Amino acid sequence: MSAVTAMGWANIADDLRRQIESGDLAAGEKLPAETTLAREYDVNRTTVRSALRRLTSEGLVVSQKGRGSFVRQYAPLRWSWSGFESQDKHARGYDGVDAWEASVRDQDRTPELALTVEIVRPPAPVASRLGLGEGEIAVARRRVRLIDGVPFLLQDSYMPESLVRGTDLMLPHDVSAPGGVLNSLGHVQTRYVDEITCRMPTKVETERLQLPSGTAVAEHMRTGYDADDCPLRCMVSVLPGDRHVMVYELDAS
Amino acid sequence: MSAVTAMGWANIADDLRRQIESGDLAAGEKLPAETTLAREYDVNRTTVRSALRRLTSEGLVVSQKGRGSFVRQYAPLRWSWSGFESQDKHARGYDGVDAWEASVRDQDRTPELALTVEIVRPPAPVASRLGLGEGEIAVARRRVRLIDGVPFLLQDSYMPESLVRGTDLMLPHDVSAPGGVLNSLGHVQTRYVDEITCRMPTKVETERLQLPSGTAVAEHMRTGYDADDCPLRCMVSVLPGDRHVMVYELDAS
DNA sequence: AAGTGGTCTAGACCACTAA
DNA sequence: TAGTGGTCTAGACCACTTT
């Protein structure tokens, strides 16, 4: 709260950031009201709001209407994507999906799953990875994974419709190991490629994941291939950055 | 530009977003001036600015002082982190770092490297991964990797000072294969763990990477271990989300 | 010189939360 | 009911870019 000299919103943000990083403002603590800060820094409330917006976009602060602004608390879940750590890969599904639920239960929290199945023209990036042409369609299995009722992860799996026509994968039931089902159909996945990028969420994702503004998401796209390098499956996951760490364990050989 | 009814900033953002996604506003195109939009939507300029801020935070728009606001263009680099694709891993360094330069040259662009070396108390997450106690120090080799003069990647490698004391790794010269140097010192890395998360950049990162606001970054942390599971090296990379895709190729076996 | 985005003020009303 | 953040208006000045 060192006022005195005239400060722009950037200086106010710097001052508050310093207090957060030094611990003067502890995680979870409530910040002074905007009107209070405006008085203390001797600026208009609009200027204070610009500073707070900056801190929000850095993920340091969250604001709640009618309640106040708070120093954000971090406790992201660690989540292994390499699958190499698993002692029992086949029981858990080749994509390690169920390991997510297991790790959630390990922390005494309740995982939930909402699953819908659609037949769709896949989005262009997915279509190109599955090698689907203009008119070809795919089966989309869309999952929203929740913890204690809060959406944590969007996960859409696409498979060529010709591959899974008439199988259990067309039904909106949980299939613990989609790889297993594909295996039993004679489609054995031997290799996969993961692509990861990060970006700001779209409007739809903000709503579906109930994201506070300023939260970045990682987009994880996994494409699975059989021994002939024919693509079998493309899984697109959207993970809020503040809730997830992706872990890969690899041999250096 | 469907005005008529009273619109809040969210509706204006929706309208502009629709125009961008439909291509009515093409990539790179200049948006109408804020005052123009305010007149067209029949709102105050402040309201227009709120809408534009939203689109900026979604990465759809960039604004430049005195010039205007523009629809953003995307063209992220693909960058393999798994190292499994490389035919000549040892020549290129076990962490695949030089493959980055190679991939840049493949696209007829010019990679540059700025390297500094410091002896530091490592940040807490790094210290814990290297197994360093309170007073122990590390050698930090800090790289800024540029393409055509534009900073593309921050990459800081930390090694326990006791491991590399008096070696070439203490000198601010490019060492093409740090793993090779460590190898020759008797420290052979056999395994590494990658951790990836995404977040908004800190103020310092925004400046060092010259990021437009609203760009998320991926933080990639790679910890290398020897055969005794003793940590040798921790490399922290910060990648602007709009410029990078991380790729892992993995066996499903 | 004209146009543009960045910043700031002063004041207002609303919706939501908590005492 | 009082406090809080969310939104919006009307107007101003500045710094930077383009003509």
In short:
With 253 residues, chain A is α+β, with helices and mostly antiparallel strands. The first copy, chain A, has helices at residues 9-22, 34-41, 45-57, 89-92, 97-106, 124-130, 161-164, 178-184, 203-208, and strands spanning 61-64, 68-71, 77-80, 111-120, 138-147, 150-160, 189-199, 217-226, 231-240, 244-251.
Descriptive tags:
six-stranded antiparallel beta sheet, 9 helices, two-stranded antiparallel ribbon, 32% strand, DNA-binding, 29% helix, 253 residues, homodimer, alpha+beta
How would you characterize this protein structure?
2 copies of one chain form a homodimer. Chain A is α+β, with helices and mostly antiparallel strands and 253 residues long. The first copy, chain A, is 29% helix and 32% strand. The first copy, chain A, contains 9 helices and 10 strands. The first copy, chain A, has helices at 9-22, 34-41, 45-57, 89-92, 97-106, 124-130, 161-164, 178-184, 203-208, and strands at residues 61-64, 68-71, 77-80, 111-120, 138-147, 150-160, 189-199, 217-226, 231-240, 244-251. The first copy, chain A, has a 6-stranded antiparallel beta sheet with strand order 4-5-6-9-8-7. In chain A, strands 1-2 form a two-stranded antiparallel sheet. The first copy, chain A, has a two-stranded parallel sheet with strand order 3-10. Mean pLDDT of chain A is 80; it is low at 84-96. The structure holds a DNA duplex (19 and 19 nucleotides).
Strand content of chain A: 25-35%
**N to C succession of SSEs of chain A:** HHHEEEHHEHEEHHEHEEE
Radius of gyration of chain A, in angstroms, nearest whole number: 23 Å
Quote the average pLDDT of chain A.
Answer: 80
